[in-house]
Specification:
With 412 residues, the protein is mainly α. Helices cover 59% and strands 6% of the residues. It contains 22 helices and 5 strands. The protein has helices at residues 10-22, 35-44, 61-71, 86-91, 106-123, 126-133, 143-152, 159-167, 170-180, 194-201, 203-222, 229-249, 254-266, 269-277, 279-292, 296-304, 308-319, 323-331, 345-356, 370-377, 384-391, 398-402, and strands at residues 2-6, 28-32, 49-52, 76-81, 98-101. It has a 5-stranded parallel beta sheet with strand order 2-1-3-4-5, with helices on both faces. It is globular. The model is unreliable at 397-412 (pLDDT under 50). Keywords: Phosphoprotein.
């Protein structure tokens, strides 16, 4: 693997080089002392990853990463900078894959780059690129989501201000309120005020919900024939709520839990892309899965050359969503390929998706079951039954769900 490090302080680069040697990192490393020099080097050599500081004279790290994103889209882009460089980081947030604060030890840097490059390899296969190329256009990030994301970066943002952002889009408001009042949330009373909806959902959950609504609505506009985007969205929201329950039970920290919720809400959007590209072949894949008694994603790989998980992750990577979310979406059917083999946001999403389709009884495990192997690898197989009991009410529909008592926290 070849990695280009960029920092205007030569001493910082020398220190980094010494750390990498001490860690025995098996990379070919080059070093540049400016953004301009980095661009010259990128023109003559291929790099798997670019790791840059933010504050540099002339072309800063944000400008450099935006350039790399445009001209070398398959290169992993990492920011290694001081947390105080917040404004510059925000300017590059759509172009970077990961942010690491200085000082950063070589072990963490190595892990971050290795797992980012491994995920990139999943997302740049020829078959996947051909599939995505068959879509006339990729949907854009909803404007309301962008506005919410910007507002939530302000620590002084209030529930009222967040609710008013949603209220500016009448269609989005109607959909948010429809979903808040659906059986998934088990509310005992009707909510008609978007500001009240924010107070019940929580701002971060609202953000992921708005993103999902925007995606599903745009794909409906593209004309996904013979496929119910509404049914799929209900499944994604159910998995998202179960993910939060499991994540809280296992004490994920707030950021990890937010990533897990967002990934769960978006985990199946690749199905929308596939149906937009070729609904007839999607029907063939579904039939093959049924006849051969194999998971749908395996049938998709055999017919399309890629599955909906990789396609959904590709879309999120184009939008510049955080690498952790992209990784969960990409691996939610093949979690044994994950870099980390301990309970993580990926585990919460994989378990929730597994349990959401299990019904009232857990399925009997088989030796070749990818997910069962994964649960054993992360040492949580014995927890499936307790998670199943914890989430059992989420799977209930309509009238049964509405009879359930209102929990203290009804957010997804």
């Amino acid at each position: 693997m070849t990695v280009l490090f960029v920092d205007d302080e030569p001493q910082a680069l020398r220190q980094l080089e010494r750390q990498l040697i001490a860690e025995d990192v098996d990379w070919d490393c080059d070093f540049a002392t400016s953004g301009e020099q980095a661009i010259e080097m990128l023109a003559t050599a291929k790099y798997d990853a670019v790791v840059t500081d933010m504050r540099m004279p002339g072309m800063d790290g944000a400008a450099l990463l935006n350039y790399v994103s445009k001209h070398h889209p398959n290169t992993v882009r990492i920011v290694l900078s001081k947390p105080s460089d917040r404004d510059a980081v925000l300017r590059s947030i759509m172009a970077m894959h990961q942010f690491l604060p200085k000082p950063c030890d070589a072990s963490e840097l190595r892990t971050t780059i290795d797992r980012a490059c491994a995920l990139r390899d999943v997302l740049v296969s020829d078959s996947l690129q051909r599939l995505v190329g068959g879509l006339s256009r990729l949907p854009s990030v909803p404007a309301v989501y962008r506005e919410l994301t910007n507002a939530l970066r302000n620590e002084d943002a209030s529930i009222s201000s967040i609710g008013k952002i949603v209220a500016k889009d009448a269609v989005m408001t109607a959909k948010v309120l429809q979903l808040v009042n659906s059986a998934i949330f088990c509310l005992s009373h009707h909510i008609s005020d978007p500001i009240k909806a924010v107070s019940l959902l929580g701002a971060s959950t609202l953000k992921s919900l708005v993103l999902a609504i925007g995606i599903f609505q745009e794909f409906e506009a593209l004309g996904v024939n013979g496929f119910s985007a509404e049914v799929l969205m209900q499944h994604c929201l159910r998995v998202s709520r179960m993910t939060k329950l499991i994540g809280r039970r296992e004490r994920l920290d707030s950021q990890a839990l937010e990533d897990a919720i967002t990934a769960a809400t978006l985990h199946d959007i690749g199905k929308l892309v596939l149906h937009s590209i070729d609904p007839k072949t999607c029907a063939q894949a579904a039939l093959k899965a049924e006849i051969d008694d194999i998971p749908l994603w395996r049938a998709e790989r055999q017919i399309f050359g890629a599955d909906h998980a990789a396609i959904g992750a590709h879309l999120l990577s184009v939008w510049g969503l955080p690498q952790t979310i992209i990784e969960i979406v990409a691996l939610h059917h093949t979690p044994t390929k994950a870099y980390e083999m301990s309970f993580s946001p990926l585990t919460a999403v994989v378990a929730s998706n597994y349990l959401s389709r299990a019904g009232s009884q857990l399925p009997l495990p088989t030796p070749d079951d990818e997910l069962v192997r994964y649960f054993e690898m992360v040492v949580c197989g014995e927890k499936l039954e307790s998670w199943h009991n914890l989430c059992s009410d989420v799977g209930k529909r309509n009238d049964e769900s509405r009879k359930a008592p209102l929990p203290q926290d009804i957010s997804l």
